[in-house]
Amino acid sequence: MSPDKLVYMANQIGKFFAHQGEAKAVAGIADHIAKFWDPRMRAAIQAHAASGGAGLDPPVLQAVMILPTAGGEVPRRGGGEPTRSL
Amino acid sequence: MSLIHETDHGTPPSKATTSVTLRVDGIDVTVPEGTSVMRAAMDAGIKVPKLCATDSLAAFGSCRLCLVEIEGRAGTPASCTTPVAPGMVVSTQTERLKKLRRGVMELYISDHPLDCLTCAANGDCELQDMAGAVGLREVRYGYVGENHLDAAKDESNPYFAFDPAKCIVCSRCVRACEEVQGTFALTIDGRGFESKVAAGMDQPFLDSECVSCGACVQACPTATLMEKSVIDIGQPEHSVVTTCAYCGVGCSFKAEMRGTEVVRMVPYKDGHANHGHSCVKGRFAWGYATHRERILKPMVREKISDPWREVSWAEAIGRVVSEFRRIQAQHGRGAIGGITSSRCTNEETFLIQKLVRAGFGNNNVDTCARVCHSPTGYGLKTTFGTSAGTQDFDSVEHCDVMVVIGANPTDGHPVFASRMKKRLREGAKLIVIDPRRIDMVRMPHVQASHHLPLRPGTNVAVLTALAHVIVTEGLVDEAFVRERCEPDDFAAWAAFVAEERNSPEAVAKISGVPAELIRGAARLYATGGNAAIYYGLGVTEHSQGTTAVMAIANLAMATGNIGRPGVGVNPLRGQNNVQGSCDMGSFPHEYSGYRHVSDDATRAVFETMWGVTLDHEPGLRIPNMLDAAVDGSFKGLYIQGEDIVQSDPDTQHVVAGFKAMECVVVQDLFLNETANFAHVFLPGSSFLEKDGTFTNAERRINRVRKVMPPRNGLADWEITVAIAHAMGVAGMDYTHPSQIMDEIARTTPTFTGVSYDKLDAVGSVQWPCNEAAPQGTPVMHAGGFVRGRGRFIITEYVPTDERTGPRFPLLLTSGRILSQYNVGAQTRRTANVMWHDQDLLEIHPHDAEQRGVRDGDWVRLASRVGATTLRAKVTDRVAPGVVYTTFHHPLTQTNVVTTQYSDWATDCPEYKVTAVQVTPSNGPSDWQREYRELSVQNTRIAADAAE
Ligand code: SF4
Ligand code: SF4
Ligand code: SF4
Ligand code: FES
C-alpha cells in the first residue's frame, strides 16, 4: 500500500501519543498499530522503515521498528489499476 | 392475530411515590397521589366516557363527558381534571350523569355529519364509541343541522388528511403538537361553534411549521385527522409490534395490517424508547418496501459495464462462492472481505462476521459504523471501559443541563428531541456547541443558554478549554474523582488542561468562540445540577474524532456527571443499528462484545463453537480495503445493505477502489450507487419482511418482527446462510433468527441473558443483560466503571491538515435533514421528497454576496479532490466562512468533495471539515456528467432475463 498514506497515518497516531514521553509514546504507537493495522499494512510500513523510514516522525519510526512481524500470510498484489478517473 | 388495542387511561400516570386509596363504584383502588379520578377508575376497570382526554396529554377538561359524582362534593366534576383524594367515594354512573352525558353527546352529534358508514374512521372512532357508551338514542336538535360537509379538506400533507367537517374541537391535536411533539404548529381559531383547528398561520399543513410527526393524527378521536392510507385501504385487522428501521432512537411501532398489506404504522405506547411517539420517517415513510424500483431477483454480470442478467438464487450464490474462492487462490486469503450494515439486524450482522471469520478465514469485516461512530467505541472504551452510551433515553427527565455537541436532534433523532424539548420547557438549561445554529438553539419555548458556534475542526480545543475552566476555577467534583478515577491520570490531565494555551482566551483565537461564552458554558455544565452530554457525528467525524470523545468523557468524570439518571455521555447513533452492528463483532479487530481478535481466550470460545481455527491478526477497515484494492491486494467484497460509493468520502477514490476489484457482491433493496460497480446483486429484504433485533442508541435491544413474507424470496440472514453453506462453513443450520441470538448469547458475556423469549416477555432490554443484570442495565458505570477506575486522557489539540487557503477559503460541513435518511435510498422513494427534493448548500449572506450568489442559484462546490453542483440557500444559520449541506441525493454526491483525511485512531473519515470554494455555476460538474452516464450504463437490466 502507498507508503505516503501509511506514513501519514502512522504520524497521526504518533501525535496523539507524543505528550506521554518517548518510552511510553513509542510503546503506545506500536501497540496501536499492532492492534488496528492488518498484516499487509504493517508489512508495508515495516518495509518502508527498513529502507530508511523517510517521513516518519522519530518516535513513530522507533515504534515501527519494534512491531512484531505479522503472523499469517500477507496477501499478494496483482492487477489493479490505481486510477482516479472513470 | 388480532389488532392490539392499547388501554387509554385518559390521563398520564402520576410520578408520585406516595399512594392514595379511594372507592370508585364500590371498588377500592390504590393509586399514586396526583392521579386523576378518571385514571383511578380505569385502574379499577371502569371506563368513564371521555372525548377530550387521552393519556398521552395533560387533562384539559373541555368536553364535559367524563363527569362523575363525588360524595360530599357539590356538582359533577370532570374526572379527568379532578385528582384523587384519600377516602374519596366516586360514582361514575348515576341517573343524573347519564342524562348530562346524553345532553353533551346530543350537542356534539347535532353539529357532526352522520356519514358513519362511509367514514374512514368507521370502527375506530371515539365519537361513535361514546355515542354508544352513553346510550344516545335520539338527537332532539335534529340531524339536519350543521353537517359541515362542504368545509374544505386539507390534503396538502402527503400522508394524512384534515377534514374539518368531522372536527369536535376537542383540541387533542393542538395539545399533542405542543406537549408530545413540541412543534406548536396548531391552534384553535375562533370561538364557540365557529372555532376550528388551524395549522400555522391558517395555512395548509404542508406549508406550516408542521413536521408531519403524526402525533395529532394519533390523538384525534375522530376522522378529522386521518392517515391517507386508512382512507385508501380501510381499517386494519391485525397488528404486529416491531421496530423502526431508520434512526438510532429505535421507536417501537404497531404495524397495522390488512393481510400482508401495511395499512399504517402506529407508534407503540409501550415502546420503551419512544413511549408512543414517532417522526415522519418511521410513521409514514415505509412505502419504499413496495416501491417499483425494488429489485426482487438475483442478478449477475461478467463486467460492470455489462447489463445485469437475472438468474436463480443458486446461480448467484454459486457465482459468489466460485469467484471468492478463485480470488483467494490467486491472491491470498486476505484478498476478500465483507461489510455489514448498521441498517441490518444484529443477527444478520453477526452472521456476516461469522462468514468472514470462519468462511473467508480472515478478519476483513467492517461495518458502516466505521464512518460514523467508531471513535465513540475507541474513546469510551479507553476512558470508561466499554463502547457504549451510558444512559437510557428516560434519563433526560432527570437532567438539569443538556450539552448538545455536533448533533442536530430535531432532524437526526426527532423523537428523542421531543423528549429533550419537553424537559427544556420544564426548565432544564441547554448548551449547544455547533458551527451551525441548529433549530434547538431557538425554537418555540426552547432557547439555548449558550450557543458556541465554533469553527469546524476545533472541537478538541473547545472541549479542553471547558475542562480548563472547570479545573482552574475549582469546579472539579473532587470526591467523585478520588473515589472513581485513576489518580495519576487525573493529575496529569488536570495539569495539562490548566496550561494557559488551553484557556478559553487562547482557544477563542483558534475556534472563533468568545472566551466568555466558553467560560459561561463550563460553569453551567459543572454547577447546574445533573448535566448530560449528547453528541453526534459532528464530534466523531474528524481527524481528532476519538480525541474529542475522550475529551467529553473527561468532562463527565471531572464533574461527577456519570453513573446515575440525568447525567452521562450519550452518543446519538445515526442509523437504527449502529450500536448493534458494533456490538456484534463486525469490526476487523474485535469479536462481539468488543474483544480483540488477538485475545486467545476469546478466540477459543468461537473456535470451539464454530469448529475452525481463527485468524489472530486484525483485518482491514473499510478505507483500508479501498486503499488495498487500488493497490491490488484486495479483490472481492460482500456488502450487505450499505452504499459505500455514495456514503464514503472522496468518491473518486472509492470508485477507483471498486473498479479495481474483481468480484463485488451487493445485497440491497435497490440498485444503489455501489451496485454500479458490482458483479453480483443479491436482492435484500426490508425490515417488514424479517425477524431479528436492532439495538438503539441507549443499548436497547428491540425486536423486529416479520409482518409480510420477503418479497425477494429470502430474508437477508437466509442469504448469508446460503453463501456460508456453499462455502462449507459448518454450524450455520439456523431455522430462525432466534437461534442466532442464542449463539450470540452463548458467546458474548454482555448478552448472556438475552433471548427472544425474554424480549417477547418484557418488550426490550438494555445490555449488559446477564447474570449480574438479568433485566438489563439502563444506566452504566453506577457503582464503578466497567474498566474499574475511570481514566482521564490528555487531549492535545492537533489542527486538521485540511486547511483553508486562497483557493479554498470556506469550510464545508455536512449533516442530515428530518425527512431524509442517509443516502436516501429509502426515503427518496417515499413522499418524503416533498420536504426535501434536493441537497442545498447553506451559505452565509456575506459569503454569498462576495461571490455574486443569490438564494436558489446553482453553485459549484469544489474542494482539492473534486467538485459538484447544487443550489444555494442563503442563510445566516451558518457562520461566515462556513457552508453546509446534506448528502441524501446521488445527483449531488456531496462526497465527491470530501477528503480522505480521517480519525487518527479509527480511520473514521473527516466528513465534517473540507476546505472548499463556492462559485456561481450553470450546470453539472464534469464528474457529475460522467458519473450519470456511467450510472445509466451500469444499471441496465437485460430484457431477456432468465428465470
Ligand atoms: S403532524 Fe406533528 S407537527 Fe404536524 S401538526 Fe401534527 S403534531 Fe404538529
Ligand atoms: S382535529 Fe381531531 S383532535 Fe383536533 S380538535 Fe378536531 S377532533 Fe379534536
Ligand atoms: S426515524 Fe428514528 S425517531 Fe423517527 S420513528 Fe424511526 S426510530 Fe423513531
Ligand atoms: S374527557 Fe374530561 S372533560 Fe373531556
From TrEMBL, chain B:
Domain 4Fe-4S Mo/W bis-MGD-type, by residue range, is: 237-293
Cited InterPro entries: 2Fe-2S_ferredoxin-like_sf, 2Fe-2S_ferredoxin-type, 4Fe4S_Fe-S-bd, 4Fe4S_Fe_S_CS, Asp_de-COase-like_dom_sf, Formate_Dh-H_N, Formate_DH_asu, MoPterin_dinucl-bd_dom
Q: Which domain of life is it from?
A: Bacteria
- Domain (4Fe-4S ferredoxin-type): give its ranges: 158-189, 202-230
Outline the extent of the 2Fe-2S ferredoxin-type domain: 18-96
Tell me which UniProt keywords the record has, alphabetically: 2Fe-2S, 4Fe-4S, Iron, Iron-sulfur, Metal-binding, Oxidoreductase, Repeat
UniProt domain 4Fe-4S His(Cys)3-ligated-type: residue ranges: 96-135
Q: What cellular component terms from Gene Ontology apply here?
A: membrane; oxidoreductase complex
Cross-referenced Pfam families, in alphabetical order? Fer2_4, Fer4_7, Molybdop_Fe4S4, Molybdopterin, Molydop_binding, NADH-G_4Fe-4S_3
Keyword flag Iron: yes
What Gene Ontology molecular function terms does this protein carry? Answer: 2 iron, 2 sulfur cluster binding; 4 iron, 4 sulfur cluster binding; formate dehydrogenase (NAD+) activity; metal ion binding; molybdopterin cofactor binding; NADH dehydrogenase activity
Stored PROSITE patterns: 2FE2S_FER_2, 4FE4S_FER_1, 4FE4S_FER_2, 4FE4S_HC3, 4FE4S_MOW_BIS_MGD
Q: Name one GO biological process term.
A: formate metabolic process
**What protein family does this chain belong to?**
In the C-terminal section; belongs to the prokaryotic molybdopterin-containing oxidoreductase family.
Q: What is this protein called?
A: Formate dehydrogenase subunit alpha
